[in-house]
Amino acid sequence: MNLVQRCQPLLDVLRDPAHMATLDLAGWDLLLRQAGAAGLLSRLAVQAETLGLDASLPDVVRPHLTAARTVAAKQRQAVRWEARRVAHALTDIEGPVLLLKGAAYAISDLPPATGRLFSDIDILVPRAQLGQAEAALRLAGWHTQKQDDYDQRYYRRWMHELPPLTHIRRGTVLDVHHNLLPETARIHTHAGPVLAAAQALADLPGLSIPADTDLVLHSACHLFHEGEWGHGLRDLVDLDAMLRAFSLSPGFWPALLARAQALNLGRPLYYALDCCRRWLHTPIPEHVIAACPSQPPAWQRPLMRQLFDAGLASAHPTCRGRLVKLATFILFVRSHYLRMPWRLLLPHLLHQALRRNREQN
Amino acid sequence: MKLGDLSLAQLRHRLADNDLALRTGPFVTRIHSPIPQVADGLLRLYADFPLDAGEFRDFHVRVGPPAGLRRWLRPQINFWHDGHSPFKPLPANHAFALLEWGLNWCVAGHAHHYLMLHAAVLEKNGRAVVFPGDPGAGKSTLTAALMLSGWRLLSDEITLVDRDDGLLVGLARPVSLKNASIDVIRRAFPDAVIGAPAYDTHKGTVAHVRPSADSVARVGEKARPAWVVFPRWREGSPARLSPHSRADAFLHTASHAFNYSLLGGLGFELNAALMDACTCHDFEYSRLDDALRVFAELAA
Question: N or C, which end of chain B has less CB nearby within 10 Å?
């Protein structure tokens, strides 16, 4: 059984939420576990309610969906409130200040926002305003947490974001980016065009969200470069939801391809389209994939598919294949390899390993 | 079929095969464990609980040794909820206590279709008393004593408030006693069935009291809240109820709840309705006999 098949119970309902109406109790037992581990249960719960399925579901299942919707509603409200606090803190920054990923979806009610869970808020500010933004956020209560000088240097010198900021009272985590990928990454991209094309939010003065194409490309490069595969499938569902909705407007596909070329993000886009189509049956025209501006050589494709499939299937034990540990380790090494050249990476990994060793003793 | 219908050997076998689903109130938990202590504890404390033969389980948990070489040096134990372990490993002889904490974690972290207060709750003559109360205040001792004197136990840790009718929903799981209160209960109730103590846990010595058969048999009956009582054990104090401000009781239960803010407006409504339905008291005591008499009068 391959990995896509192992995840079939979850994939069936992600592809077609109406499929929930056909599940028996054993099917629900497995679905709730797979969806819960992947962080997708509340999305399904909201979809079940929207489709009017709730009343016909088994009595033992309904409470789980009610609970999952409650969590999602609370998180949505919290993200909106937190975004308002960020906007308030950054009023005097010469913007634009962009919300990224989950926060952008939630604030603008984009399709991935349905029942989505959040772990932190991501924003993007122009590099020139980074210092001012950090100072303003610190004044409003967001501080970097227990990190040593090495971490601070690592983030500030090489990364595309500040060390994560935690609010001293609310404990919420804010990631402040100034680019989509690290400065040292093998793929060079630039945030300028993304900032320039951002759409201001009418009800949140001072905040913007990226253009549709840039939301897709950022999500793709986050998933396929940074390698947080624990919620990989959730991120793929974000991509699927955006692609399905955005591609209804004429001209979206050519615009997406042109933008991928301009931002030098053709490769992550290729992987995103390939995985979306195979995992979630996203309706992507063949010619769009064929026209993707950067594609892996043919010999690499089966290998990359196997790796990404293992990452996407890693959330729940019933989805994982035998080689999942090896595959996720390779993905971990790959994400570091993509992040910086060897001459930086090797000393960094050595430092992290020694520190872990020190902490354990 | 009840858990107690199994022999110890059968129970061990089914736990090791991941083939045991236990019903505790509204939840069915499939328990997987090769650890003999877990089987012993379950048989001693959960014998009256029904097993569930259905295909749907609310929680899938495992208690077992963590991977790695340590198991041969200083054996450890960990808890997994469906492949995810929320706690750090503990010494192997804390296995049963860890299962209890794990089951609490499962409910508190998932059952957001209820308002979940951090409080004990018991019922007598159709009316329920809720014991919020700070750790060390003597809440569990009083809970165990009341249960062993005929009150019906709903829960000693998590008060579940039904979001549809505001009634209290029971779990009837064992009462967790700490340190000196273990002997207090042993002395006062020589017939009480108490599980093997776990020594030197982060809470000190912990042992669990088997819930009364009546509590387990009637776990499906929801209870109407009547009193919120803040118990406090104080040396030499006579047993005495005194009024406690409702507003303060509201704030205390809300700020100590597992999911008050997660429920948003509904959490406020449910907790407010609970306070409206109750009279609120402080309760000081030093001798269990006196305490039980006060509560007998309260429920009369």
Answer: C
The answer to whether residue A361 is domain-embedded is no
Among the candidates B72, B94, B110, a domain finishes at B110
Which of A28, A29, A69, A231 is the best mutation test for B, with the most CBs of B within 10 A? A29
What CATH number is given to the structural domain containing A61? 3.30.460.40
pLDDT at residue B42 is higher than 90:
yes
Q: CB-based burial of residue A184 (10 Å sphere; 0-12 exposed, 13-18 middle, 19+ buried)? A: middle
| Beta bridge partners of residue A100, listed in sequence order | A122
Cβ-count burial B233-249 (b if 16+ within 10 Å, e if not): beeeeebebeebeeeeb
Six-digit token string for A241: 């939801």
Instruction: Tell me, yes or no, whether B197 and B73 share the same domain.
Output: no
Provide the 3-class DSSP secondary structure of residue A194. Answer: helix
Closest CA to B186 of B212, B154, B209: B209
Percent of chain A with pLDDT over 70: 93
In this structure, the answer to whether residues B150 and B288 fall within a common structural domain is yes
Asked if A314 and A230 count as a contact pair (C-beta separation under 8 A), the reply is yes
The pLDDT value recorded for residue B136 is 75
At A335 the pLDDT is 76
CA distance A309 to A40: 17
Q: Tell me, what's the pLDDT at A184? A: 65
* Structural domain containing residue A121: 3-355
**A76 φ/ψ angles, rounded to the nearest 5 degrees:** -60, -50
- The number of folded domains in chain B is 2
Which of B27, B28, B55, B164 is the best mutation test for A, with the most CBs of A within 10 A?
Answer: B55
For residue B184, give its domain range.
Answer: 114-299
Of residues A25, A68, A316, nearest to B54 (C-beta): A25
pTM, 2 dp: 0.91
Q: Which pLDDT score, from 0 to 100, does residue A158 have?
A: 66
Instruction: Kindly indicate the confidence band of residue A273, based on its pLDDT and cuts at 50, 70 and 90.
Output: very high
What's the rounded Cα separation, in Å, for the pair A234 and B132?
38
> A24 in contact with B at a CB cutoff of 8 Å?
yes
Q: Which two tokens stand for residue B113?
A: 């279709």
Residue A194 included in any domain: yes
